[in-house]
Amino acid sequence: MYLxxxxxxxxxxxxxxxxxxxxxxxxxxxxxxxxxxxGWSEQNPADWIAxxxxxxxxxxxxxxxxxxxxxxxxxxGHMHGATLIDAAGEVLRPxxxxxxxxxxxxAAQLDDDPRFRAITGNIVFPGFTAPKLVWVKKNEPExxxxxxxxxxxxxxxxxxxxxxxxxEMSDSAGTAWLDTARxxxxxxxxxxxxxxxxxxxxxxxxxxxxxxxxxxxxxEWGMTGPVVVAGGAGDNAASxxxxxxxxxxxxxxxxxxxxxxxxxxxxxxxxxxxAVHAFCHALPGTWHQMGVILSATDALNWYAKVTDKSPxxxxxxxxxxxxxxxxxxxxxxxxxxxxxxxxAAIRGAFIGLxxxxxxxxxxxxxxxxxxxxxxxxxxxxxxxxxELSRITAIGGGSRSRYWLxxxxxxxxxxxxxxxxxxxxxxxxxxxxxxxxxxxxxxxxVCTPPETAETVDPETAHTAxxxxxxxxxRALYPAIKTLSGx
Length: 485
Prior knowledge:
Blueprint: E1 2-7, E2 11-17, E3 23-30, E4 42-43, H1 45-62, H2 64-68, E5 72-77, E6 83-85, E7 95-96, H3 104-111, H4 114-120, H5 129-139, H6 141-145, E8 149-151, H7 153-162, E9 166-168, H8 169-172, E10 178-179, E11 184-185, H9 187-192, E12 202-204, E13 209-212, H10 215-220, E14 228-230, E15 233-234, H11 235-243, E16 251-255, E17 259-265, E18 277-280, E19 287-293, H12 297-307, H13 311-318, E20 329-331, E21 349-351, H14 359-383, E22 391-394, H15 401-411, E23 415-418, H16 425-438, H17 442-445, E24 451-455, H18 462-480
Parallel strand pairs: 1-5, 5-14, 5-15, 9-12, 16-22, 22-23
Antiparallel strand pairs: 1-2, 2-3, 4-7, 6-8, 10-11, 13-14, 16-17, 17-19, 18-19, 20-21, 23-24
Helix pairs in contact: 1-7, 3-5, 11-16, 12-14, 13-14, 14-15
């Protein structure tokens, strides 16, 4: 048996799979986010430990025999978080999360240093880890002076599980300290933020061993024999392992809270000016590119709240038959935008409202706006040297057939819908635990799920969607002047 632990922003999921990768059971424990000030987003790392105890404890209660046979544990987690540890291994302050934007000034300052883009292959975004440490140094100097280790969220969980300070390539690529081509920390970039290599965890590949489970925890959970803890992955790379998106050109679109267009690469292809992330993948010798929009299902959830309807009700109201875009255009920049604009200040808008703009028309506009933002991501990936022939859909928004048709037509790409199953980050983490414990061939393990159905672009609406997309593109510079910059 193999255990995957996925530390998400809103909860921790533990998933148990057998040697044939059949899902045996899973359990969840909720987490909350603290927002003490505007733009802040924090969690107490002690809550991650409590959630892990709850989730694995539930598996121990319900499936003791299966849990006793665990030989490998894989880890996945939300990226970019700054978890600061002192010399005694104690947490110095709450973790500053990926969606915390307080360090936007520090991020811009680091990004002005050409070494960061040259070495990491990425813009220094406000959500990344390095600018958060610069902010801490500036605003909490007593805390900064005590920092012995900087850990990403899942790697703090590893520290609790194993007692070791270890990270891996995919998550570390999102710190703005990794030499992404060389897959190693950059002493030069660390020094630029007044840090040293010894304050970083050691690095392994995601499918390699990254520590061993403490005997006390193994005994508590009824596990017999040694249990290896894999390097693991950042959440999107872990999802890619779960989806089998590991070979060059394989891709998925995630319609979750945020939207992600993820493409696996067999070599390093940076183009930071496109705002495409060029990160290491979780498997040796592989990289990936990723475009990110900050509000996907979050945009529909917001509109649902405004209209006092559920997202499911709104989706049912528009039906399954794709319509050509109307006169209403929606810009989904509710909390700024990452790819391709790298603009934390931009905000969303409805454009083209008229007396006849009913709720259904506005729902379609919200879905189309997200689809067009993903098209922006596709164009950014193309500019960075990646061409896609088809993509697989995951995430809660992919349950809406209308939305998938809109995305397929806006991107002019077929979208595969996987057969029923959970192929997300927890499953990918469990696969990495299997690889670390057995030494199996990653490509033989990280295979894609069967396709239940394919949603093809609707050629009758291709021209209308292209025209609407060009209108969408023209609106960003038009409203940028109104966003207070």
